[in-house]
Amino acid sequence: MPVTEQDVQDALREVYDPEIPVNVVDLGLIYNVRIEPAGDDASRVDVEMTMTTPGCPAHGMLTTNAREKIEQIPGVKEVNVNLVWSPPWTPARLSSAAKKKLGIE
């Protein structure tokens, strides 16, 4: 079964910011997911993600957790999680579920 973007998004929903009780997908931190063949029915996954602030002390932990969760998807051979800052994150990127959990909506 080929790896899908939904598989990656589902795996990333298990990654939480330690200071905010919301996963990185619902926080709107995932900007791009690209899946490419890596030979032998395996896939390479590249993810672009950001943080809520450039000085986020949890950036290393979050990117490592994201990579580890994606690596657990059957068929994934290689994972690259790249931290990007453009466009800057804003609360407008929060999902409805995140807004509700945080009491914003």
Question: Can you put this structure into words, describing what you see?
Answer:
Strands 1-2-3 form a 3-stranded mixed sheet, covered by helices on one side. It is globular. The protein is built from 3 helices and 3 strands. The model has no long low-confidence stretch (mean pLDDT 94). It is an alpha+beta fold. It has one domain: Fe-S cluster assembly (FSCA) (GMP Synthetase, Chain A, domain 3), CATH 3.30.300. The protein has helices at 5-12, 59-71, 96-101, and strands at residues 30-37, 43-49, 76-83.
State the gist of this model:
The chain is α+β, with helices and mostly antiparallel strands.
Summary tags:
single chain; 105 residues; alpha+beta; GMP Synthetase, Chain A, domain 3; 3-stranded mixed β-sheet; 3 helices; 26% helix; 22% strand; globular
Structural Rg? 14 Å
Strands of the widest sheet, in order across it, are: 1-2-3
Q: Write down the secondary-structure element order.
A: HEEHEH
Instruction: Give the terminus-to-terminus CA distance.
Output: 38 Å
The overall pLDDT, averaged over residues, is 94
Tally of strands: 3
Q: In CATH's first tier, which class applies? A: Alpha Beta
- Biggest β-sheet: count, sense, barrel? 3 strands, mixed
Ranges where pLDDT stays below 50 over 5 or more residues in a row are: none
Strand content: 15-25%
